[in-house]
Design goal:
alpha+beta, 191 residues, signal, single chain, GlcG_carb_metab_protein, Beta-Lactamase, disordered N terminus, 4 strands
Length: 191
């Protein structure tokens, strides 16, 4: 990768993490109520109600942190300290990321892309990888996706709301075992 691309990728990642943090803070702080006697909502304000606003489930910052820590701990227990773990919402926005000791730079993108792929498709990436036929363009050509084992979706009432991905182990099955351990830390299910 060219140096300018590395710098751009680093700056873009920092901006993404900063944006995610600001966005989470904004979502956590309720908007102030209009002052008594002030003008009512402006014409551009969307009023909540049926058909105008979509409610969204998100994994909390605490649960996200617990999940990536649990996944990394599983990898470390399996003597795989050189992995990266990422948890993203279903839109691919990073919620939490931990880079293990000696994890190579490419593991960061691999973990994020596996997490996003699992979240977007609502299935483990090992299952999705089986759908790749190699005959012309396919789902594996979608930007930001990675159809290799190591990503697991997190669901609320059967609907995918996030994904956890691990990149860097010598075998995707090992990545996925760590991701499943991270998911179990949030869902309580056995990994």
């Amino acid at each position: 990768m060219k140096k300018s691309h590395k710098v751009f990728a680093t700056v873009a990642t920092a901006a993404l993490l900063l944006t995610a943090g600001v966005g989470a803070a904004a979502m956590a702080t309720p908007a102030p109520a209009p002052a008594a006697g002030s003008a009512s909502a402006s014409a551009s304000d969307i009023q909540p109600g049926a058909g105008t606003v979509v409610a969204q489930n998100r994994i909390t910052v605490g649960a996200s942190a617990d999940a990536v820590r649990a996944a990394l701990a599983k990898c470390q227990a399996d003597n795989l300290p050189f992995v990266t773990v990422a948890l993203v919402d279903r839109f691919g926005t990073v919620q939490a990321l931990l880079r293990g000791d000696n994890a190579a730079e490419h593991t960061i993108e691999a973990a994020k892309q596996k997490a996003y792929t699992a979240a977007a498709f609502g299935a483990p990436t090992s299952e999705l990888a089986k759908r790749i036929t190699g005959n012309g363009p396919g789902i594996h050509d979608l930007p930001g996706t990675l159809f290799l084992p190591g990503g697991v979706p997190l669901k609320v009432d059967g609907v995918s709301v996030a994904g956890i991905g691990v990149g860097g182990a010598p075998d995707g099955k090992l990545d996925e075992a760590c991701a499943a351990a991270g998911a179990a830390a949030v869902t309580g299910a056995e990994g």
